[in-house]
Amino acid sequence: MHTSSNFERMDGRASSTPASHAPGRDPAGGTGSASEALVAASHVPLLVHVAAAESTNELARDLHRDARIDTPHLTLVVADHQTAGRGRLGRHWESPAGRSLTASVLLRVPATPGLRSALPWFALAAALAARDAVARRLTPLGRAVGVKWPNDVVVDGTRKVAGLLAEILEPTGTDLWMVIGLGVNVAMTSAERPTPVATSLSLEGDEDAASDPARVVDSLLCDWVDALAVRAEALVDHDGDAVAAGVHAEISESCVTVGRQVSVRRPDDAGRSTPRSAGVGRATPGSPPTSPSLLTGTATAIGPDGALLVRPPGGATVAVTTGDVEMVAPT
Fold first, then answer.
1. Residue 180: which of 194, 197, 162 has the closest Cα?
2. Nearest in space to 32 (alpha carbons), one of 90, 93, 79
3. Average pLDDT rounded to a whole number, residues 12-41
4. Which of 50-54, 275-279, 306-310 has the lowest mean pLDDT?
């Protein structure tokens, strides 16, 4: 396994120097938490750690495109501070320096017909893995941790503690590639919450997250990548059949959206010949959003393709493949 912890963005390119063998610190003077211990304890074959990045997804994509750099399956890119991160539907997301997890992982998927159509399930698998990592810390504190479709991790059904963004990269040879970014609020304070429903591990009572966020970030990263690697391997082994791989049952059980009244603001799909993958976008920064349309109804299930099935009042069930989902409080 190889670790590189001193990468700098220069004119859109990446350069590297070997990492120090002292875990937990960037030899270039950064204060990052990502360490060789993380690599040794997980499935990560290559760790790229930077003090700051505009977007870990974009940095991972740049490294993947660079012919000089070998970025194998499960390459992990970690930033202590993300300044221009993107959430779903083009939202801006900035992480407090040193008090949050911001990372992206590269996934290689064989380009079989079954797996090509199953890419949304890898995004959902990543959300489940993030749920596992957060639940390991919060479940002992009496918190219920679940997935809000398609890729948010929430506490007690409503409070968002983590979010993910999955993007499809250019295929190479016989392989498909994805980058999946994860952001976890580790030690965010109440005053720093961007919305009333945002929360953090420390706000939920995780004392270690408040006192030693760097160590907690390491632990979360190990747990996330390991849980994702197992589910990704199962999906590949079953050629994208999420039911046979067990991922469909897991997301159906842990998804807090299912069974709730929801309001879904969707991009206008008029004229599309191919439905967009659930929770997965193409890596095309700067693309203008299309006009939204609104759907309300009951979220009844997760479909076989990972779509959220919504039944509007008096209407036929609609398979939602992308959109901004809000759960409506009972009246």
1. 162
2. 79
3. 40
4. 275-279
Sign of CA dihedral 251, 257, 262, 264: negative
- Distance, in Å, from the CA atom of 121 to the CA atom of 145, rounded to the nearest integer, reads 20
Q: How would you class 16 by CB atoms within 10 Å of its CB: exposed for 0-12, middle for 13-18, buried for 19 or more? A: middle
Taking 3-state DSSP, the helix, strand and coil percentages for the chain, each rounded to the nearest 5, stand at: 25, 30, 40
Query: Which parts of the chain fold into alpha helices (H)?
Result: 36-40, 56-65, 113-116, 119-138, 207-211, 213-237, 242-245, 247-254
Q: What is the pLDDT of residues 241-273, one digit of tens each?
A: 999 999 999 999 999 999 999 999 977 543 332
Rounded Cα distance, 187 and 168, in Å: 30
What is the b/e burial string over 252-278, where b = at least 16 CB atoms within 10 angstroms of the residue's CB? Answer: eebbbbbebbbebebbeeeeeeeebbb
Which amino acid makes up residue 228? L
The reported pTM is 0.83
Task: Say whether pLDDT at 66 is over 60.
Answer: yes
Longest Cα–Cα distance of the chain, Å, equals 63
Partners of 294 in the beta sheet? 265
Q: Report which of 68, 50, 67 is spatially closest to residue 59, judged by C-alpha positions.
A: 50
Residue 182 has pLDDT above 50, yes or no: yes
The pLDDT value given to residue 276? 37
Model pLDDT, residue 70: 94
Q: What CA dihedral angle connects 16, 85, 261 and 125, to 10 degrees?
A: 0
User: In this structure, how many other beta carbons lie within 10 angstroms of the beta carbon of residue 157?
Assistant: 13
